[in-house]
Amino acid sequence: MWQAEHVRAQLLELYPHSSVEILGMTTRGDQILDRTLSKVGGKGLFVKELEIAMLGGHADLAVHSLKDVPMELPPEFELAAVLEREDARDAFVSNDYDNLAALPAGAVVGTSSLRRQALIAARFPHLVIRPLRGNLDTRLGKLDRGEYAAIILAAAGLKRLGLPERIRSLLEPEQSLPAPGQGAMAIEIPAGRADLRQLLAPLDHADTSAAVRAERTLSRVFGGSCQVPLAAYATVAGDQLHMRAMVGTPDGLRVATAEASGPASAPEALGRQIADALNTQGAASILEACKADA
Ligand SMILES: NCc1[nH]cc(CCC(=O)O)c1CC(=O)O
């Protein structure tokens, strides 16, 4: 809802004489997401709910956390704009400890992200990682009730919801490389709605858009076959795009990393180049191991 309100405010600033109505679908979507994520590992069910609303003519556009938008959209939809990225970093949240390094052996860390799990396990094998689901309030509640010594959340979500003081420390990309699209919001519309595309074009942030295109290209290369810990984070400096990426096994024992730079005008090429580099670093065999598990 915060994100939808944010987009509405931006649209009303651009088009003061228009009206923007918010069709709230958070609760239902959250329930569906919570119920099914653990069973089928499916991503994008909440996105699907909003797509159904657009297909039914109930909504013209949908506002998403880009991280939750599947890499391949159905042909009936397109992304019309990617908004300027918030903090892309992961946040360490705890009532008792300052950072991951301060946690004693056996301390329980909450996250359901395979990426966060692999990155923590690789650096801190003495910690115990347990699943943590639900919306932000639910997750913080579980921490506060003592179910975890610490939890890892996206900094962007905490900042947007006015809870930056819950962030005990930020995990730098060198330690916890963000997920593709983390911290960015995207607006999805029915494909071919040129009127909407034009209205929304001013909301698109060119640097964020280039960065997440590179990240999502890489994710597309590795995401299709199985659920695998995957990180990709790109930044723009001038006309150059720089990206780092990682794939690994959930236990953190095998990790492949790669980084490269290229022109910001060709983000997909950089994404493919880094995918190739990851493959020569052993990503292919990591994916094979993951398929064998499934
Ligand atoms: N994993 C779910 C998810 N999808 C988007 C965000 C919020 C941050 C963002 O917009 O990227 C979160 C919460 C989290 O990872 O802690």
UniProtKB/TrEMBL annotation:
Keyword Lyase: no
Family stated for the protein in its record: Belongs to the HMBS family.
Cofactor(s) this protein requires: dipyrromethane
Record-given protein name: Porphobilinogen deaminase
Miscellaneous section: The porphobilinogen subunits are added to the dipyrromethane group.
Domain Porphobilinogen deaminase N-terminal: 1-196
Matches recorded under Pfam families: Porphobil_deam, Porphobil_deamC
Keyword Transferase appears in the UniProt entry: yes
InterPro entries: HemC, Porphobilin_deaminase_cofac_BS, Porphobilin_deaminase_N, Porphobilinogen_deaminase_C, Porphobilinogen_deaminase_C_sf
PROSITE patterns from the UniProt entry: PORPHOBILINOGEN_DEAM
Entry EC number(s): 2.5.1.61
Signal peptide extent: none
Catalytic reaction annotation: 4 porphobilinogen + H2O = hydroxymethylbilane + 4 NH4(+)
Pathway it works in: Porphyrin-containing compound metabolism; protoporphyrin-IX biosynthesis; coproporphyrinogen-III from 5-aminolevulinate: step 2/4
Principal EC category: transferase
Protein function: Tetrapolymerization of the monopyrrole PBG into the hydroxymethylbilane pre-uroporphyrinogen in several discrete steps.
